Amino acid sequence: MAAPRRPSGGGLRRAPHDGRLDEINKEFLCDPKFSNEKGLEEKLAVFKEKYMEFDLNNQGEIDLMSVKRMMEKLGAPKTHLELKRMISEVTGGVSDTISYQDFVNLMLGKRSAVLKLVMMFEGKANESSRKPSGPPPERDIASLP
């Protein structure tokens, strides 16, 4: 008799992780240091979505390979040394992985780290690369190349 199959776990493992990120977002919303930040709640929702997208191992941290994948996806591959430098800049050299708190501090902070610029660039690229919806416009013979 075959053993019962378990669900893949992707959604199941994300739930506690998702709740932990929501708690951290609430801390940022209550932090007086960020009270003047416009659209903070929306920004935090976007940051959470991006963070979860690149947390490949669902451990609650972005590691070297996750940053490598992100940079490759953006068309800007980096060497391991460059990636380690980027992570070190975000964490202050304390860790080899980027926690969600470090990530949000980076994105909301005034410093312009390479990773922050890349993430902002990706957001702008996604906005400009949206395809128009609906049928294509009619063309006549004169408009063809």
TrEMBL record:
Its predominant location is membrane
> What name does this protein carry?
Allograft inflammatory factor 1 like
Q: Where in the cell is it found?
A: Cell projection, Ruffle membrane; Cytoplasm, Cytoskeleton
Which residues belong to any copy of the EF-hand domain?
42-77
Please give a single GO biological process term from the UniProt record. Answer: ruffle assembly
Arranged from A to Z, the UniProt key words for this protein are: Acetylation, Calcium, Cell membrane, Cell projection, Cytoplasm, Cytoskeleton, Membrane, Metal-binding, Phosphoprotein, Repeat
**Gene that this polypeptide is encoded by:** AIF1L
Molecular function terms from GO:
actin filament binding; calcium ion binding
Residues that span the membrane, as ranges:
none
Lipid bilayer topology: Peripheral membrane protein
Q: How is this protein annotated for GO cellular component?
A: actin filament; ruffle membrane
Signal sequence bounds: none
For the region Disordered, what residue ranges are annotated? 124-145
> So which domain of life are we looking at?
Eukaryota
**Pfam families (alphabetical):** AIF-1 (PF21008)
